[in-house]
Amino acid sequence: MKSTKVLDAKGLACPMPIVRTKKAMEELNSGDILEVHTTDQGSKSDLTAWAKAGGHELLKDTEEDNILKFWVKKG
């Protein structure tokens, strides 16, 4: 999936992945896609809820080698 920007939030604990994601989203235009990489297992539920509450769309999420990857489309 083609992303506009990649955010490396690996090694950060809650709530920092969400804080960094929010800041990165502010730099994007509506319709752009942010790819987020994190190792915080809580990010799965946190990012899903944050995207929905913020009017964004979680397009896809995967996990490989303990790295969670999310693709969020800015609303």
From TrEMBL:
Gene3D superfamilies membership: TusA-like domain (3.30.110.40)
Residue ranges of domain UPF0033 in the record: 7-31
Highest rank taxon of the organism: Bacteria
A family per Pfam: TusA
Signal peptide limits: none
UniProt cross-references to SUPFAM superfamilies, sorted A to Z: SirA-like
PANTHER family recorded: SULFUR CARRIER PROTEIN YEDF-RELATED
Family, similarity comment: Belongs to the sulfur carrier protein TusA family.
This protein's name: Sulfurtransferase TusA family protein
